[in-house]
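Table S5 (text form). Sequence records supplied for joint modeling of the three-component complex.
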Amino acid sequence: MTTTLTPPPVQPPTPPKPRAKLGDRLLFGYTWLVILWLCLPIGVMILFGFNQVQGRYNNRWHGFTLEWYAHVFDLSGLTNALEASLIIAVASTLIATALGTLLGVALGRYRFRGDGTSNLVQFAAISTPEIVMGMSLVAFFVQLDVPLGYLTIIIAHVMFSLSFVAVTVRSRVLTLDRSVEEAAKDLGASAMGTFWLVTLPMILPGVTAGALLAFAISIDDFVVTNFTAGNIETFPLWIWSSQKNGLPPQVNVMGTLIFAGGVLLALGNAMAARRRPA
Amino acid sequence: MGSLRARFTPYALMLPGGLWLAIFFVIPTLILLQFSLMTGNEADGYQFTFHWQNYSDALSTYYPQFIRSLEYGGTATVLGIALSYPVAYWIAFKGGARKSTYLFLILLPFFVSFVLRTISWQFLLSDNGMVLGPLKDAGLLPPDFHILQTSVAVVGGLTYNYLPFMVLPIYVALERVDPGVVEASYDLYSSRTQSFLKVIFPLSLPGVFAGVLMNFVPAASDYVNAEVLGGPDNTMIGNIIQDQALTVRDYPTATALSATLMLALLVGIFAYARALGTETVLQAAAR
Amino acid sequence: MDRKIDPALLRGLSQRRYDRRDVMKLFGVGAGLGAAGLTLAACGVKGAKQAPADQDAVAKYWADKKQNGHLDFATWALYMPKDQAPLKAFTKETGITVNYQEVIQDDPSWYGKIQPQLAADKPIGYDLMVVTNGMELDKLVEFGYLAPLDHSRLPNYTQNADPIYRNEAYDKGNVYSIPYTSGYTGIAYNPAYVKEPITKIAQLWDPKYAGKIGMMKDPQELGNFGMLLLGINPETSTPADWTRAAAKLREQKPLVRAYVAQDYTKSLANGDLWICQGWSGDIFQENASNGSNLQFVVPEEGGTIWTDNMMIPKTAANPVDAVMMMDYFYRPQVAADLTEFINYVTPVPSTKDLIAKHAAASTGDDKKTLEEILTRPLVYPTAADLAKLKRYPSLKSADEQKTYQNTFLPISSG
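The corresponding structure-token record, covering 979 residues in total, follows.
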């Protein structure tokens, strides 16, 4: 029995992988430090929603209490402001998602005259400073004698949200496999049918992400809303005008609840995404 | 596919959204420019008179605030890059299975209203509050030391508020770096530092650029941070515009300042893009 | 996909979408739309000035108005006891429910909020509001945004109000407004940190307090103190005076920690500020509700007196209910109860006797508090006190207002 033992081919010695365990540890610690820094004001806000406030100012810790959670809707002005914010957010999200999805599909799928301009205008809409946008909307509404209020706020919110939705949907559309749609057409589906039954479900993650983004932007918006609100108070506007008098603990409670709600929504979305076939 | 219906589809799709943007973004911007050339006041009305003097008056009075806004915005952006890059790097390369968790944590602040976050900082940084109080009691700081009403507080607030918008784009760009390329550089005997400087960092520049865009523009035009955390010497151009528009109600001046701000930022962005030479890289990436 | 942020979104966010050619395209599009926009707007924006109301206007306005049983009332903080007792009594007696909202922080932002609706002849959501005499009130009157008052519906006012309010320069004859309360701007300070008695505006310029001084951001308040310090009477001041006052205020600027709006009592109480320009009643209420020990003085050089006035926006839905509320506040007992809480100057002099009676009938701490109110010049000024107090300058034309604001605003917005 002859076993030829061929010596293994001689490999040039690979250089040792650069070691940097310490660097890794430092980066790890640093990242957590940054995350802590980012969350510090939130922690403070949540904490002082449990403060036994005495007097007008919630700035010294007096003791733990849950009473503000029981009385969270006591301040009618604040509750109305929160309601207004939610109504505006829902309305503008619905409109912006619809318009933005269509726009995103158009830009991602098709080449047409004016797509460069559309891209450019969208980019400009996303990157224009809010104060310039607010100022121009006010100038616009003043010219046209349109009274400021719910309508103007929703118009403004839709305007800057729809670009975000469009960009999100467009990115998603760009990654789509067109063969599925081709197959649908081959099987006799109409253009509309293809869109509703094939395209839309495939881009749904992008649409949902865009809708969530639009909702978050609308609830939180301050600068543009400040200019276009007239005498409607939204949640951020109410906080802004009351900070001079001292923020009531209900603001902390509401902020905490919105925060918790948003986190749950996001986690839910992530879990649903995990289950969704990619 | 040359059928008329197919040719029309893209236009039909983009029409509602495009129209909305045209009516409520493009036209108001033009009206902004038009207002900046008007004369008049609230009582007597405004007339369009090509009054370029609005610009020269506004700028000569408020150029310190302008310069200061660009300074604060620039500083906040640079600080943002310095602070975010290591975080983005770590998450992209070492995050492993927990990447999404880290990203989620980075984005956590955005679930709280921007105004509320800034007011929380005002509370945290108050003269004898949770941060400065114990330090002063321990004798580490002089008793009349204060952070609020200084530029440190304002720039800190700006950096804080826009940090996730710097981490995210840099992360995305780093995540797309092909690990094979990095391996190749190691195989070619480059040290870790060299590998970073010559391979990884240049590949991440599109992300840095996007982050700069999403930080510098809002930071330079911000007024909430300056109003809540700043003092009389930290006024930014955003505060001036707000005062002129809402208190003095001098629309020509306010719009002239807004238009100048927008122009300055656009020019800055273009210059930066040219200098960095990322045009072609991104053009390719965009398509 | 197991991450919270869709990578598609991240990609979308991190991509550039333009180059030079696209910008040229945008300019081209912009120019085209610009031509359209310019033609659209070449007409300009019409002004808001209106002719003043006359007697016919009053009759015409009130002819078809009825009592509706509800009222939306917009006002400032600290102008009503927490239990809203006067409002509850009003509701019990008249059946009119009152929605009381402390939504006004400062006059300019309040005016900014309601102006667009009023200009478009739309309701602002409130029937009764309280605005200080000053530029905003002047504008409201000038542009015809207020309902002319029907004095036949204000018997208590006619009977009980102090006559001096009938002839104020900002609303002669009370065509549009009647006072709610008046107050002073003087100097507030925290004796825990300020060891000497404060008596003069000049002490706000004392380097000893550098970094602990607060001044008000409102141009009318700030300007008045600058002028009073220089011995100028603000009511008769000229633009040259304003410039001199502004120069003096700029000298003070390095010493000033902050230019405040309404939040100075908090800063005074916790030591961020030691000495600050402030409003009389605020200090008292801060002491009463938070147990602080702040002090307030009207300086020797003089102080500012201002009046917060009740008025009805012309688009109010319930003006009859509003005017009934206005008159209700002029019942002496109601006015007395209100004064005991808010500690500002009441326009009803007979409250003094009522509070004296109340004090006589009380005991202990209550008695002391009430007696203090009687003797406090901050609530019942003597003629000598009033001589030291000046109003804001009266700025009638838009140009004057702009000049004034642009003289003093830059001081606080460095």
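Note: Chain B has one domain: 73-286.
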